[in-house]
Amino acid sequence: MTSSDKKDEKKNQKDGTRVFKKMCLDGKISTYIGTREFVDHVGHIDPIAAVLLIHEMDWFTENKEYKVYAEITATFRYGRDDLDVLGINFKKDLYTDAMQVYPVKGVASCTTKIQEKLLKKLGAERAFPFTFDLPAGIPSSVTLQPVKNDTSSKPCGVEYCLKTYIAKDMHEPPDRKQVVDLLIKKITHAPDTQAPQPYIESAKNFMMSPNPLHVEARLDKERYIHGEPIYVHITMGNQSTRAVKKLRLSVKQVANICLFSNAIYKCTVASVEHDLNVQPSQTIAQTFSIRPLLEDNRDKRGLALDGQIKSEDTNLASSTIALPIANREALGIVVKYIVKIELFVSMGGELKLELPFTLSHPIPEHYEEDMEPPPQPTDANADNINLELDETGAYNNTLLSAQADDQLLIDFESDALTSKETDA
């Protein structure tokens, strides 16, 4: 494949919509979902919209006592899998909800365009949409960074799982081969409106100095996007008899583990030092920059990261933005960030200041289109999408040819278990 062909392929995949599919091991059902990231807008949360596909409808006709259920669970895992002994699991369910998907109770309706398109292609007689509306105040997906190259166990943190399964009753343990588990994650987007600029001023008196060292510090804004540099504006009026020799600027992540008791962990995720020479009776105004990145902190165990699905890359955990009425214990891990300013003066004195800020994600460009309710079917060519599905559960990418915005990209989930892996 030439470089131009690769560019065209990447362009087509960028223009398409990704749909994730996973089939249970005995091949009776599959679950389709348009995105594995659900956004918390601090007032409402995007619905979890998926589609159930039944491959063996005759089997359900013959076994009418069996039904298909869907369940969404937020779990806080605070221990390794290999430490689970005597039936004790080191995890706690922070939120759970379930519903019956098949047979349909009432009228099954589509809430997104992706569900509408999938129903047209899979067939309404064996495809059934379902949607979970999540309440405000539930935790975001957070992973605590494990030891480097440790893949022996699931990392600790908060994770979400969408499960569809076949059972006679909603509370009956299902057969492993009749379960579809899809890992998903909830991320928080800070509001578009900017809060006031973080600002602090302080003065410190030193022994044998009649006047203080006065410092004012502010950030250029309150909310930052992951990977964006942080600019710190410092104004210093040195009326003391000591010289300011050095400035240390650092970004600290503060993670509050809200489980049985509050445990606070602080970790420096970025740090820079600058030599200064601010003499007595001198005033300066200067801007410094610092950029917190996960790439510089890969070796720090226990660092809070945004929820991670298998081996995909991630970033530092976003700031927790919760409603005032939220139950802190139900949030699992509360993350916040501060910029710490340390000024070192001659003869051993120092002055420290802290400025809080919010680290978050930008609103995705495709959000408005993906979350918009499906329009009424008016296009006669809407059913002409060439949907090539691999019903055997092979995992690859297939770009589907279609007209205009009916183009779909089916991305089969790479973390699905094979029969061999399950039986081992």
- What is the subunit organization of this protein? single chain
Approximate helicity band = under 10%
Number of helices: 5
Instruction: Give the low-pLDDT segments.
Output: 1-15, 366-424
Order of helical and strand elements: HEEEEHEEHEEEEEEEEEEEEEEHEEH
Main sheet overview: 7 strands, mixed
Mean pLDDT metric: 78
> What gap, in angstroms, lies between the N and C termini?
38 Å
Strand content: 35-45%
Shape: elongated
The overall strand count is 22
By secondary-structure content and strand pairing, the structural class works out as mainly beta
Radius of gyration (Å)? 26 Å
Could you characterize the architecture of this molecule?
There is one protein chain. The protein has helices at residues 3-15, 57-62, 113-122, 367-371, 419-423; strands spanning 17-23, 29-33, 37-40, 48-54, 67-77, 91-102, 127-132, 142-144, 157-167, 179-188, 199-204, 213-219, 223-225, 230-238, 244-258, 262-278, 282-290, 304-306, 332-345, 350-360, 397-399, 408-412. With 424 residues, it is mostly beta strands. Strands 3, 5, 6, 8, 9, 10 and 18 form a seven-stranded mixed beta sheet that branches. It has a six-stranded mixed beta sheet with strand order 7-4-2-1-22-21. The longest helix is centred in the first third of the chain and has 13 residues, at 3-15. It is elongated, with a radius of gyration of 26 Å.
